[in-house]
Amino acid sequence: METQIHVPVGLPVIKKFPVFVDEHNVTEGAMKLIKELRPAWDKNRIKTKLFKDGTTNKLVGCYVEESPDDVVLVRVYGNKTELIVDRDNELKSFQVADKQRMTLYFTVL
After folding, report:
1. Fewest CB within 10 angstroms: 8, 37, 71, 99, which?
2. Environment class of residue 48 by beta-carbon count within 10 Å: exposed (0-12), middle (13-18) or buried (19+)?
3. Would you give the distance in Å from CA 8 to the centre of its chain?
4. Four-point Cα dihedral 18, 65, 73, 36, nearest 10
5. Which is higher by pLDDT, 62 or 6?
6. Contact yes or no for 33/107 (Cβ under 8 A)
7. Is 16 strand, coil or helix?
8. Cα torsion at 51, 33, 15, 83 (round to 10°)?
9. 56: CB partners within 8 A, 6+ apart
């Protein structure tokens, strides 16, 4: 049985950026997003960490050394995982999590 997540009225809308992130070059795609999300960051000072422990998704963390607590995580869904996971419902759960100060800034179309 599928569960629908209720999003309370007034929660912020999740921004969508028309950026393609290639699953075979996640870091390059993440850098395109960083230009939108952290325009003040000097691109020559951005550090990245690719997390390889996931089964299907790819995840890269982006940060600058001056602000190690300000990390942008970019997740690229695994091939065909949308057949198992309801992405619209997943975004709703992120909106609800945002209310608890766990921020999702964007999703890629």
Report:
1. 8
2. middle
3. 22
4. -10
5. 62
6. no
7. strand
8. -50
9. 77, 78, 79, 81
- The dihedrals phi and psi of 48, each to the nearest 5 degrees, come to -130, 150
Can you give the pLDDT at residue 6? 63
Kindly provide the residue ranges of all beta strands, DSSP E only, lying in the chain, ordered along the sequence.
Answer: 15-17, 46-51, 58-64, 72-76, 106-108
Amino acid at 38: R
Structure tokens at 75: 């997740």
Q: Find the range with the poorest average confidence among 4-13, 26-35, 64-73, 87-96.
A: 4-13
What separation in angstroms does the CA of 79 have from each of 23, 60, 64, 83? 9, 17, 30, 9
pLDDT at 63 over 90: yes
Backbone angles phi, psi at 37, to 5 degrees: -85, -35
